[in-house]
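Subject: Sanity check before I submit

Could someone independently write out the structure tokens for this chain? I want to compare against mine line by line before I put it in a report. The sequence has 401 residues.
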Amino acid sequence: MSNVSGFDILLRLFRIMVLRKKLILFIALAPTLICLIVVMVSKSTYVAEALIKPPSSDNSSPLEAAFKESGAGSLLGSFMGGAGTGENDCISIFKSVLFERLIIERFDLETVWELKKDGKPKGKIYFADVAKQFQRYAGIELTEENAIRITMRDESPERARDIVSFMIRTLDSLYTDIQRTATQRRLEYVDRRLAMAEAEMKGTEDSLVAFQNRHNLIVPEAQVKLILENATQTELQVETLKEQLALEAALRGTSSAKYQDLMTQKNLMQQALQGQLRSHADSNSLILPARTLPALANEYFRYQRAYTVRLGVYKYLVQQVEALKLEANKNVQVISVIDPPWNNDKRVSPKRRVMLETTLILSFILALVVAVLKTKWEKYREENPESLTLVMEIKKNLLKF
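---
Independent answer below. Compare away.
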């Protein structure tokens, strides 16, 4: 078997094309003409789109930011209702049945899509099928910049633009309603928690005041400092008297009058020091025993720390209640429109040129294949005349059958 070059194959194909030009033209042009007729009678479709920016989820207050920096961000997020983003919420609303129903009913898309005629359905219509039709025409996607692109395909560019505009308004309304409902629920919880925090704070206040009255701690910080200074001064005076007694005993002996006076002063100072260290005679005195000061101060500061914590929680809850009340009562558009929908009269389908070119190329290839097969068959029939007799017999049997 001799090798056949590519050039020889091209020559053979060209010869077949010349011999079978009518067949090739018919097979190539017939589908193309049919495609031309179809694309000319097909209705044009247009796309309207808009770019929106949902509210950011990171609009926390400075106090919330301080909580997050202190490591309590997860606790705060669970307390305030989670960390869902506005982009995800908007996409969820867009894909909801409620949203689809509002758009379909507002523009009577069942009639537009010829599912109804003169207000009456053509047969039994299921909303699930209508929703699938809506999902084929409407689109939503999240861009790399966390913006949302909304699109709508329709036979009318004006109607497509109006539908996208209504989608934005409906999306904003539903998003606001959901956020307002969630805010109301959080507000109810925070109100109850605020009442509990206020009761706890008042209980701690009463305990702290009772403790101060019981131990005469009016100004603990100042009292502790003065009591310790007084005890220290008394102890220093006792040590000074001891030195004077030792000196007097060395100079004049222990029987001198001055020695007796110094001894009396020392005994009195020691008694006063023991009283300062252990107990005080008057229960209403502001001078407390120095020995009990560490325990009293520790308990006092424990009460004060508990009161400070409860006061901080109370102030935070008050701030949250006011913020939630403002959030629940606001009535402003929360979705920002970056690029509003406009009347785009550029057709997106059918793509007539692409369809015609594709059909012409595929038809020409099919025609070339048919021409080659027909040529091969005729050559085989000439070389094998008995095959014609076999074909005729098969044809007769088929006609009889």
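---
OP: Matches mine. For the report I'm noting this point. Residues 58-84 have pLDDT under 50 and may be disordered.
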